[in-house]
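$ ./design --mode recover --in tokens.txt
reading tokens...
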């Protein structure tokens, strides 16, 4: 699935800021609402049921399996929702829930690869800086070198972390949802970091505020309702004190807990999962809009070609190093030349009578006059 940006015209930052408000229109996409609700509810059900079984059986493996299954449901389901909202943000025809899930199952693993590569990049930068800091331990020259190393390291790590958390991680999803491959995602996000880092961060801050306000409003309403309902339930059903700890404890004990507490825990979890649908949709469509605004009429061919050339160079150097290592290993395993081996006995000829050293062409020993030939 490839989505083109050619139909969009470039927008100034003020217009891009206004277009971000359109992220709230995500609540009109009923297919996305249904899919995200099913994703959240499915994750809660899978995790909750396996957690109850793990609690009743005291099985750590089953608890881990429940968490893993809940994560996979959330991961592939939320990516399917992202694919639907990306098409919506681009004005393309919608797709069915089944098609979105199938595309997600086929492409979402790209995000895992991107996250691993990004982590390795940060780790490599920190290792290089750590090596340079060890070099700064040299007496006399070390403090002088550290005067330059300290500010440069602070700048590199600061920009790297900001780029990672405000560009790489949030926009990797929209890039994958638009059909980009792993290396295309890396190349495009790298160009965005180098050219539009500040504007992207400002737009994301606004998106966070919009999402947080929406979530605060929704969960404020639900929190009030849950508090009143819990108080009434505790008095009428004689459940004692009902709070989040009691509900979680009821789920953790499995079948040994109160049936009402287990029901309240599952029902409350489903309620909170459903409530998270609206903020989740707004944030997902918001990052899609930010990505589209950052990539309007941008030619990524040079960046992608540069990345491919760099990868080809690294691969070539690795191949050359492997060939050199193999040649050195073969040379070390080759026995010494016969001429060198024959020279040693010639230099160590001795007279059989007095053991004095003699030459190969001597007819008599110079010490005892013993006849050699």
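writing sequence...
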């Amino acid at each position: 699935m490839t989505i083109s940006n050619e139909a969009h015209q470039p927008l100034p930052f003020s217009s891009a800021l206004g277009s971000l408000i359109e992220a709230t229109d995500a609540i009109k996409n009923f297919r996305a609402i249904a899919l995200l609700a099913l994703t959240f509810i499915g994750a809660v059900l899978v995790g909750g049921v396996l957690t109850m079984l793990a609690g009743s059986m005291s099985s750590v493996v089953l608890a881990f399996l429940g968490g893993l299954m809940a994560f996979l449901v959330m991961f592939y389901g939320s990516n399917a929702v992202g694919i639907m909202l990306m098409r919506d943000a681009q004005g393309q025809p919608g797709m069915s829930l089944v098609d979105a899930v199938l595309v997600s199952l086929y492409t979402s693993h790209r995000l895992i690869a991107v996250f691993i590569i990004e982590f390795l990049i940060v780790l490599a930068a920190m290792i290089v800086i750590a090596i340079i800091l060890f070099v700064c331990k040299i007496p006399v020259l070390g403090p002088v070198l550290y005067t330059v190393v300290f500010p440069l390291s602070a700048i590199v790590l600061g920009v790297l972390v900001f780029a990672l958390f405000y560009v790489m991680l949030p926009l990797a999803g929209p890039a994958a949802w638009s059909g980009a491959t792993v290396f295309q995602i890396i190349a495009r996000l790298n160009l965005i970091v180098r050219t539009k880092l500040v504007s992207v961060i400002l737009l994301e801050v606004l998106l966070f505020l919009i999402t947080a306000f929406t979530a605060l409003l929704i969960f404020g309403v639900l929190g009030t309702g849950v508090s009143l309902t819990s108080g009434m339930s505790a008095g009428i059903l004689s459940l004692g004190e009902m709070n989040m700890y009691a509900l979680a404890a009821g789920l953790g004990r499995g079948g040994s807990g109160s049936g009402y507490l287990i029901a309240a825990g599952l029902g409350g979890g489903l309620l909170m999962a459903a409530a998270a649908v609206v903020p989740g949709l707004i944030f997902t469509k918001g990052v899609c809009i930010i990505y589209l605004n950052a990539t309007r009429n941008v030619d990524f061919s040079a960046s992608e070609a540069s990345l491919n050339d760099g990868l080809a160079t690294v691969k070539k150097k690795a191949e050359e190093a492997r060939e050199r290592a193999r040649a050195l290993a073969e040379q070390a395993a080759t026995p010494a030349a016969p001429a060198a081996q024959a020279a040693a006995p010639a230099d160590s000829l001795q007279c059989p009578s007095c053991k004095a050293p003699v030459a190969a062409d001597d007819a008599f020993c110079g010490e005892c006059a013993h006849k050699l030939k």
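exit 0
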